[in-house]
Design brief:
single chain; about 260 residues; alpha+beta; Creatine Amidinohydrolase; 5-stranded antiparallel sheet; 4-stranded antiparallel sheet; 5 helices
Length: about 260
């Protein structure tokens, strides 16, 4: 069941969204060669503690409960990278995904950062993936069904010669991090027949295109969490929590 949110509820969600936005500001200020992924996570975790917020990722069940406030995924790692001793190097790209809950409401956002100077292929990957997210923001108020938006996102990625990662999708969000509906970044007949949904005011979605330079096939690391591309090609991940209202889209995790 898809739950539509009132303006009052969306206002409350924006409080969580803005804390997540501040988390990304802190990460952006820290990302540079020589920094460890654990240092990025600590900055976010400290921020959430300072604001009496729940770190949504910490303790999520898995092979082992997820141990951190952020997922930090480097280069060919798509999602769910566990922060630790890994040192970022010049030319890396690093995706940081995090979420917080305040007053019973959630916000979730991911961003991919350049570590120092990156090559042209990596620059193009970041630009295309962020643009796919922007396509969703632009089309949400004017399309009738999510499949129409997803198709345009897929076209944006594939026209650049890259691959949409189809095994991972976005999601509804509200009082819990993962709610209905599932929000794919691509169009398919199966989704249109079984999972498609109307775009109506009150809908709140975590939209998160994930894109690979090469093939989309993934493998799971022995830690039980980290997912990487099988061909070791670079990947990027951008995500905002978006609320569709009668007057347009509110980017709850965006600059305000």
């Amino acid at each position: 069941m898809i739950t539509l949110r009132s303006k009052r509820e969306i206002d409350k969600m924006q409080v969580a969204g803005q804390l997540v936005r501040e988390a990304h500001r802190r990460v952006a200020a820290l990302v540079k060669p020589g920094v460890t992924t654990a240092e990025l996570d600590k900055a976010v975790d400290d921020l959430f503690v300072e604001n009496d917020a729940i770190a949504l990722f910490k303790g999520v069940p898995g092979k082992v409960p997820f141990p951190a406030a952020t997922c930090v995924s480097v280069n060919d790692e798509v999602v769910h990278g566990i922060p630790g001793k890994r040192i970022l190097k010049e030319g890396d790209i690093v995706s940081v995904d995090t979420g917080a809950k305040i007053g019973g409401w959630c916000g979730d956002s991911a961003w991919t950062y350049a570590v120092g100077e990156i090559n042209d292929e990596a620059k193009k990957l970041l630009e295309v993936t962020e643009r796919a997210l922007q396509v969703a923001i632009e089309l949400l108020p004017v399309k009738k069904r999510w499949s129409q938006v997803a198709k345009a996102m897929q076209q944006e990625v594939e026209s650049a010669g890259f691959s949409v990662i189809t095994t991972l999708v976005g999601h509804g969000i509200g009082t819990t991090m993962h709610e209905e509906p599932q929000v794919p970044n691509y169009d398919s007949r199966e989704f249109r027949e079984k999972g498609d949904f109307d775009l109506r005011p009150g809908l709140v979605l975590a939209v998160e295109p994930m894109v690979a330079v090469g093939r989309e096939d993934l493998y799971l690391h022995s830690d039980g969490w980290t997912l990487s591309t099988k061909d070791r090609s670079l990947t990027a991940h951008f995500e905002h929590t978006l609320a569709l209202t009668s007057s347009g889209v509110r980017i709850l995790t965006g600059d305000n």
